[in-house]
Amino acid sequence: MSIQLSKQNKDLIEKQDNELNLATMNERNRIAREIHDNVGHLLSSAILQAGALKTINRDVKLNDNLQDLHETLVKAMNSIRNSVHELYDESLDLEAKVAELIKNFTFCEIDFSYNISGNPDKKLKYAFISILKEALTNIINHSDATKAIVAFNEHPALYQLIIRDNGNVKSFNTNDGIGISNMIDRVRTLNGNINIKTSNGFEIFISIPKEV
Fold first, then answer.
1. pTM to 2 decimal places
2. How far apart are CA 119 and CA 136, in angstroms?
3. Among residues 174, 209, 178, which one has the least CA distance to residue 195?
4. Cα(24)–Cα(70) distance, integer angstroms
5. How far is the C-alpha of 30 from the C-alpha of 9, rounded, in Å?
6. How far is CA 17 from CA 23, 138, 172, in A?
7. CB 3.0 to 4.6 Å from 208: which of 21, 120, 141, 192, for a disulfide?
8. Which residues, 6+ apart, have CB-to-CB distance to 93 below 8 Å?
């Protein structure tokens, strides 16, 4: 009985953590949109107005002040853009994005599992998404698979991505192709390891340390 209650409590805590994480990401997205749509629009208008004032100004004494004003507004706009991009990057839902890619993949059935509880670094998120896109493209172009497996796993010190299909690979060399090279480069940039096999369909095994 106590074991069952302990498991129920653990499941409840995990559910609450996931709901809190989702709410946080949604709020970041909302704030990013508000900043982009409202503050960004006002700054754009101010930059245009400052530029117009510089053009029509005939008072030499005001030239430096108008130039400083214009440069300050441009810096503010760049700062806003960077902040918005960072908010979007942090709020990118890796699981949802991967699920969307798999849903739109109709070449063969995919058995998808996602066992990552935390919020990985944005560089890792983008790397995993790009690698998955390339792997799915390779399945379409070079395999006759009827089923594939995509698994995201989290371990104490690293993240794993496993992509495997049951097809026969048609005339494919892992040393050729920009796509495979890009996969390898992305993984190595994050100090990870990648192993690609084509003996029994495609198999890509990637591990990336959490501290990148």
1. 0.59
2. 24
3. 174
4. 35
5. 31
6. 10, 36, 43
7. 192
8. 22, 25
Q: Where are the alpha helices (DSSP H) in 92-119?
A: 94-103
Where do the domains of the chain lie, and which CATH numbers do they carry?
1-87 (1.20.58), 94-209 (3.30.565.10)
**From CA 150, how far away is CA 152, in angstroms rounded?**
7
Orientation angle between helical segments 63-91 and 2-34, nearest 10 degrees: 150
User: What would the two tokens of residue 206 be?
Assistant: 């990637």
> Would you list the DSSP string of 6-73?
HHHHHHHHHHHHHHHHHHHHHHHHHHHHHIIIIIHHHHHHHHHHHHHHHHH---GGGHHHHHHHHHHH
Please state, in angstroms and rounded to a whole number, the distance separating the CA atoms of residues 124 and 136. Answer: 18
How many whole angstroms separate alpha carbon 28 and alpha carbon 22?
Answer: 10
Q: What is the pLDDT along the chain (212 residues), one digit of tens a residue?
A: 556 656 665 555 555 555 555 556 666 667 767 776 777 778 888 888 888 888 998 888 888 888 988 889 888 888 877 776 665 555 678 898 899 899 999 999 999 999 998 888 888 988 899 899 989 988 888 888 999 999 999 999 999 999 999 988 766 555 555 678 888 988 999 999 999 888 778 899 999 999 75
Phi, psi of 211 (to 5 degrees): -90, 100
- Please, which residues have CB within 8 angstroms of residue 101's CB and are 6 or more apart in sequence? 129, 132, 133, 136
